[in-house]
Amino acid sequence: MNVSAVYLKRGDTGKLVEASLVDEVTDAHLSLWENSWGPVMKVRCANRTSSDKPEDYHWDWRQKAGWWRPLLGYHSFALLCRNELQGLMLASDFRSARIQMQFGKPIIYVEFLATAPWNRPELKKPTRYRGVGTVMMAAAVELSFELGYRGRISLHSLPAAEPFYRDSCKMTGLGADAAHHDLMYFEMTSSQAEAFRQKP
Amino acid sequence: MTLNLTPREMAVLEELAAAKDLSKTGVMKLALRLLQAMDAKVRMGQKLFVEDDKTKEKSELVIL
User: Fold this and answer.
1) Which of A53, A111, A167, B52 could hold B57 in an S-S bridge, CB 3.0 to 4.6 Å?
2) Tally of domains within chain B
3) What pLDDT, on a 0 to 100 scale, did the predictor assign at position A37?
4) ipTM score of complex
5) Cβ of A148 and B26 within 8 Å?
6) Whole domain around residue A95: which residue ranges?
7) pTM of the predicted structure, to 2 decimals
8) Closest Cα to residue A158, out of A103, A108, A106, A120?
9) Residue B36: which of A71, A147, A148 has the nearest Cβ?
């Protein structure tokens, strides 16, 4: 298990704060999810209708961990700041790229990516921290380079997150995928990954 | 460990390494991860299918 120093921005002042990116979600992280993230999410969504709740409201990270943990092809990440869990991500490494220029080549696929409820502007303003999604996407890109995939990554985006992947991460949208609940499918090519890496 | 491959197996490995833009070691590791993931799906009672993109015809893949 490796821990890397990364930086988030405080939601109120914009000041950089050091955080820790861990390349394995442990039981301790899952306990933080159950005991802090989960209850806060429930409280903040208590009076919301199902359609108004965050699209990942139903994700059960403890249950997900049950199936990914024994498998070599899955990579999980936890982002912590001041002993609080700020984000979780699960990626897999055995899918193929779809864009013509990299078609059939292996790609890192982001299965799930979520930020803690206190970092979501629709649930808390100002957010506690900003930049969780960017740090996680950078981790997926680095994993891709480490495995020799030259930075190629892909994902299906929940509707609310599409602008982030399209505009901030500069990924290429390949349209809604009927085989995946009509979610928009995005890929990052090697050259896009290089540009993303160099982004300040 | 040492992996002994027949010339035909080595040729396939080299072909895949070129096609996938990976080293031969990378291909072998990817194959292991993929087989384990597929085997886990089958053990959970799921089936693996391949679909023809044009005809949408599906055929089941059997992984031992």
Assistant:
1) B52
2) 1
3) 92
4) 0.82
5) yes
6) 3-197
7) 0.91
8) A120
9) A71
